[in-house]
Target: NAD(P)H-dependent oxidoreductase
Amino acid sequence: MTSKTLLIVYHSMTGGSEQMAHAAADGAREEAGVHVRLLRASEAGPEDVLGADGYLFATPENLASMAGLMKDFFDRCYYAALDRLNGRPYLALICAGSDGQNALRQLERIATGWRLKQVAPTLIVCTHAQTPEAILRPKQIGPADLAQCRELGAALAAGLALGIY
Model:
């Protein structure tokens, strides 16, 4: 059985998305036969995207949009990977202060352009941070939400290992 690679790309300013990405990576690492690569969006490039069999993207929603450095990752990788990822599986995690819907729409449009296959609904964790102080404060994602992130990472890795995706 050939080993599969799961690429987890994330951006985080206040720690919420980072905790979610790490929890998903922890879950994915429990699956034998799957190599998990966890990279910050600023460190990931086209070669990382092209070298992976599946993807998990984790981003905060900033100003009703996907975080700028996450968008930068997609901008740097999009055309190099276009028509080369068709059908590969992905999941997304969003840490939002309110609803996360605009970041979700942006991620889905990019994934559609890459012709990725979404294998589970995007998990949006809402921190309800609505004041400048709350928005800038370090986030602490709750155990139940982190457990969901772990489960999603594990499920994506299991699907890759079994050849389902």
Observations:
- The mean pLDDT is 96.
- The longest strand covers residues 54-62.
- The CA atoms of residues 11 and 59 lie 5 Å apart.
- The chain is about 45% helix and 25% strand.
